[in-house]
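Below is a filled-in request sheet from our internal design queue. Each sheet records the structural input a requester submitted and the sequence that came back. We keep these sheets so that new team members can see what a complete request looks like end to end.

REQUESTER: design group, bay 2
PRIORITY: normal
MODE: inverse folding
CHAIN LENGTH: 245
BACKBONE (tokenized):
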């Protein structure tokens, strides 16, 4: 068990996860891809509970990308139905957890949008871990949207071009309410970001595992955190500077 190896004083404040491999997990078992997505929902519950127990402030899960709209209509419909059916308030209230969603939410079905807003409102009083679902999200869309907001302010005279800084951009991203992730995990064996939190992951540590998301149990999260804690985070400094700071 890896939990005993975790230094609880250095647990990442924000962990982001690309939950990959649901479809391949199902196909390897002779099942439809949707079967893998259903099993993946169970892992979301487990990993959120694990994050709460570890005191992680933010857990961001890449749930549905803008590119996923190109999947077969039947699969997209099943995913939306599955999402709607599992947005349960009880698990958040039980864990004192908050819920937030980021992405181009206007593209989602109206009933899903309504469920998202209701769950965000009802869990806003909680003070524990904030679980963030990235839905209809892509980093390029997010950055372009931020640029449009900034350009509109410049056009109206509410912002000067020379005053645009990195912080200005941060304030116009959908993630402006939370810190950048210290640890980015991707399951399923691929080693790329797939248009997820490109701006925010400038100094994130990456952890890639061949394990498909439905098999990513609590101890696998603990293993990823142990690996993260074994690294020296320099942020552009030399090892000596980091040690002295």
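RETURNED SEQUENCE:
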């Amino acid at each position: 068990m890896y939990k005993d190896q975790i230094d609880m004083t250095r647990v990442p404040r924000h962990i982001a996860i690309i939950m990959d491999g649901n479809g391949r997990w199902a196909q390897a078992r002779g099942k439809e891809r949707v079967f893998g997505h259903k099993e993946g929902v169970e892992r979301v519950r487990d990993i959120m509970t694990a994050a709460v127990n570890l005191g992680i402030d933010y857990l961001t899960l890449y749930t549905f990308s803008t590119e996923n709209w190109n999947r077969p209509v039947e699969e997209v419909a099943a995913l939306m139905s599955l999402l709607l059916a599992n947005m349960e308030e009880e698990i958040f209230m039980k864990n004192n957890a908050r819920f937030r969603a980021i992405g181009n939410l206007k593209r989602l079905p109206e009933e899903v949008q309504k469920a998202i807003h209701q769950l965000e409102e009802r869990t806003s009083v909680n003070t524990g871990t904030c679980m963030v679902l990235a839905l209809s999200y892509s980093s390029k869309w997010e950055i372009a949207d931020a640029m449009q907001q900034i350009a509109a302010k410049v056009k109206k005279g509410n912002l000067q071009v020379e005053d645009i800084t990195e912080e200005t951009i941060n304030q116009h991203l959908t993630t402006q309410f939370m810190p950048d992730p210290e640890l980015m995990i991707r399951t399923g064996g691929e080693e790329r970001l797939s248009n997820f939190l490109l701006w925010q992951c400038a100094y994130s540590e990456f952890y890639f595992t061949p394990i498909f998301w439905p098999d990513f149990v609590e101890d696998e999260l603990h293993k990823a955190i142990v690996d993260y804690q074994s690294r020296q985070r320099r942020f552009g400094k030399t090892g000596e500077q980091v040690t002295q700071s």
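SHEET NOTES:
- The chain has a mean pLDDT of 92.
- The CA atoms of residues 185 and 207 lie 5 Å apart.
FILED BY: M.R.
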